[in-house]
Design brief:
about 100 residues, alpha+beta, 2 domains, two-stranded antiparallel ribbon, 3 helices, binds zinc ion
Length: about 100
């Protein structure tokens, strides 16, 4: 188990320490999350997305309680799409996401 503490850079395949934040070889860096367009997100960005999705869901569900079911259904459909594109930000795999500019 001597190599258990290393990972491979997903961009250049260099061997890195498992907790490395940056690849010294190609400059790729580990980020907290990623937008649907592939832009890196910091911890604040990931937190914002989680809060936004949670609030949106609560408001959508409250629409049913206020007997505005059509609005609630519309909001739930939109929420499903937003959740789908952000599923890896909401439920990270623990490996982190790697991002290399350009
Ligand atoms: Zn690399």
């Amino acid at each position: 188990m001597t190599d258990a503490a290393t990972i491979e850079c997903p961009f250049c395949a260099s061997t890195l320490k498992a907790h490395a934040k940056v690849c010294a070889h190609c400059g790729a860096r580990r980020v907290a999350g990623m937008t649907a367009k592939g832009q890196p997100l910091g911890r604040g960005g990931v937190f914002f997305i989680r809060m936004f999705l949670t609030l949106w869901l609560l408001i959508a569900l409250s629409m049913f309680a206020m007997e505005s079911a059509p609005v609630g259904i519309g909001m739930l459909v939109l929420w499903s799409l937003m959740f789908f594109f952000n599923r890896r930000n909401v439920f990270p795999d623990g490996q982190g996401r790697w991002y290399r500019p350009n």
